[in-house]
Design a protein that fits this description.
By secondary structure, the chain is α+β, with helices and mostly antiparallel strands. The protein has 4 helices and 3 strands, in the order E-H-H-E-E-H-H. The N and C termini lie far apart (77 Å).
Length: 96
């Protein structure tokens, strides 16, 4: 991979595009990397990967629980909603 200055990339665009087929090419402006030029094949691969559904940690955990339930005689219920315990009495044991 080669880093190209903006002026070099403009002047040698055909060469830059030829190299993109083999590897991404970095374009710099005053020594700062500002862009990466990639092939259309690499772009499509990245787009497809980004469109794949991502499983959340909770979904992974629930799937794991289902596997455990299927393999053993476990009973485990995931509540549909939270129980409101905000108003329950709590005994701290400090009353005389």
């Amino acid at each position: 991979m080669k880093n190209w200055s903006v002026s070099e990339a403009k002047a040698r665009l055909s060469e830059l595009l030829g190299k993109v087929r083999r590897a991404p090419q970095v374009i710099e402006n005053r020594g700062e990397e500002i862009a990466v030029v990639i092939s259309i094949a690499e772009y499509e691969r990245l787009r497809e990967r980004d469109q794949e559904p991502v499983e959340t940690p909770m979904q992974k955990w629930l799937a794991h629980v289902e596997v455990l339930k299927a393999g053993r005689d476990l009973s485990f219920d995931v509540p549909d909603r939270r129980v409101d315990d905000a108003h329950r009495q709590v005994d701290f044991g400090d009353d005389d």
